[in-house]
Design goal:
Elements: H1 11-22, H2 25-37, H3 41-69, H4 73-79, H5 88-125, H6 132-139, H7 143-161, H8 164-191, H9 197-204, H10 213-226, H11 233-239, H12 247-275, H13 286-296, H14 301-333, H15 339-359, H16 374-401, H17 404-412, H18 420-444
Helix pairs in contact: 1-8, 1-12, 1-14, 2-10, 2-12, 3-9, 3-10, 3-11, 3-12, 3-16, 3-18, 4-5, 5-7, 5-14, 5-15, 5-16, 7-8, 7-14, 7-15, 8-12, 8-14, 9-12, 10-16, 10-18, 11-14, 12-13, 13-14, 14-15, 15-16, 16-18
The structure holds phenylalanine.
Length: about 450
């Protein structure tokens, strides 16, 4: 008999760890800048539909498969359909996606951590807010972004090395409530600015002429990225869930909480952007250029800037923990390495891949593949290819390859009586979500014409 597998100790812990995986730079950095670039409310609405119609059912499917198999993602998909071993590709693609995402994610997380220190120093010295030039100097530098990035990877690795319940669960139970409180504080500040209402309209009044196939595909990709889907993260977390977790209501609450954080982040950023006449479509730098500039113009602004980057760092940490856990669970499960060793190997891999991503925004700007630098290329591959295709494959496994009664039994778990929503979720997983992924995917690549 081998040692008992680590896992989440309680339903509450399973919930907070899952929310912490979902909530991340996706909410605070990616969602606002994609909404800004793609014209605001029409994109937001498409994104919400993608979460409800595709993201939520696939989240449920991943949790169910993980809990049924009680193994890491690679081992789960290798054995979930007996005699059809090729589904293991979902697991391997997930490990690859985890490294690709971490390569650029840890770069952005490094900027966030450095901005806590920088904005604190700026407030302390009274030197005025961090400017667009400050950000450009950081992001396009060599040693400074690399050192922050490596520091972040080491920090997150230490938490993951402490284990599933003592590391992941304990850390996220602490950070999630603090994050929410800080975010609400920033919202109150931003929404009480004169002129704030324009930012609210930008987020909630749709202009559908802005929608196109590529915009819809990126909204779908964002839904996957946001809920950490299509790459084994949620399968791995499902494998740590106690039997007492009611999978469907739990996933519903996770998706709701995550969406709420995105909206709250948008409501902290856009009213301030409009109130001070900044450009909402400024892209990936939106967070780093407008937040300090905008917040510094209001009373106690420097203080709020520090808070905002602090909460962003907390969000990024929970998400990175879950990204690192995918390869770590595989290396320590199937490959039987001790956990600390698995963490060290994973961290080294991330750093090796992270260096070209980070340098591609500076000294390696000229190195391009498919007209993209490494940072953009990694992001593009995961968001528009790996995650949607992984999600599609997972829906096919859950809806078409598993026996319906087995799958529904896992969903129901300890829930008594027949629950109507189980059948509804099943119909989505089997028909609606995969069909939508295929349509959006083909449309995004221009198959139905531009
Ligand atoms: N959901 C995280 C975020 O929004 C990112 C992530 C993607 C985490 C995939 C795990 C897996 O920031």
């Amino acid at each position: 008999m081998t040692k008992q597998r680590d896992g989440f100790a309680s339903s509450l812990g399973a919930f907070t760890a899952t929310v912490a995986s979902a909530v991340g730079l996706g909410n605070i950095w990616k969602f606002p800048y994609l909404a800004g670039v793609n014209g605001g409310a029409a994109f937001v609405l498409t994104y919400l539909l993608a979460v409800a119609l595709v993201g939520l059912p696939i989240l449920v499917a991943e949790h169910a498969i993980g809990r049924k198999m009680r193994k890491d993602a690679v081992a789960s998909y290798a054995t979930v359909v007996p005699r059809e071993g090729f589904w293991v590709l979902i697991g391997y693609a997930g490990v690859v996606a985890a490294f690709l995402i971490m390569a650029f994610y840890s770069d952005v997380a490094g900027w966030v951590f450095s901005y806590i220190v920088k904005s604190f120093m700026a407030a302390f010295r009274g030197t005025g807010p961090l400017s667009a030039q400050d950000f450009a100097a950081l992001a396009s530098g060599t040693w400074e972004p690399l050192i922050w990035q490596i520091g972040v990877v080491v920090f997150v690795s230490l938490i993951v090395a402490a284990g599933v319940s003592k590391g992941i669960e304990a850390a996220t139970k602490l950070t999630m409530p603090i994050l929410l409180a800080l975010l609400l504080l920033c919202d109150i500040r931003a929404l009480t600015l004169p002129g704030a209402f324009k930012g609210v309209t930008f987020l909630f009044a749709p202009d559908f002429s802005k929608l196109s196939g590529t915009v819809i595909l990126s909204a779908l990709g964002l839904a996957f990225f946001k809920l950490s889907l299509g790459m084994g993260t949620m399968t791995t977390y499902g494998s740590y869930m106690p039997e007492s977790v009611r999978l469907v209501p739990n996933a519903g609450r996770v998706a709701l909480a995550d969406t709420l954080v995105s909206i709250l982040a948008g409501l902290a950023i856009f009213p301030a952007v409009f109130a001070f006449g900044f450009e909402p479509a400024s892209g990936p730098s939106l967070l780093f250029i407008s937040i300090p500039a905008v917040f510094s113009k209001m009373p106690f602004g420097n203080f709020f800037t520090v808070l905002f980057f602090l909460l962003s760092a907390l969000a990024a940490t929970g998400a990175m923990i879950s990204l690192i856990e995918v390869p770590v669970a595989w290396l320590s499960g199937k490959m039987k390495l001790p956990r600390p060793k698995a963490v060290i190997i994973t961290a080294l891999g991330i750093i090796v891949l992270g260096i070209p991503a980070t340098l591609s925004l500076g000294p390696w700007k000229e190195v391009q593949l498919f007209k993209m630098g490494f940072f953009d290329l990694f992001d593009y591959i995961q968001q528009n290819l790996l995650l949607p295709l992984g999600g599609l494959a997972i829906a096919i496994v859950a809806g078409w390859r598993l026996r319906k009664s087995d799958f529904l039994n896992e969903l129901a778990g300890q829930e008594k009586g027949k629950k109507w929503y189980l059948t509804l979720v099943y119909i989505f997983i089997k028909y609606i979500s995969p069909a939508l992924i295929v349509l959006v995917f083909l449309n995004g690549f221009g198959v139905f014409g531009k």
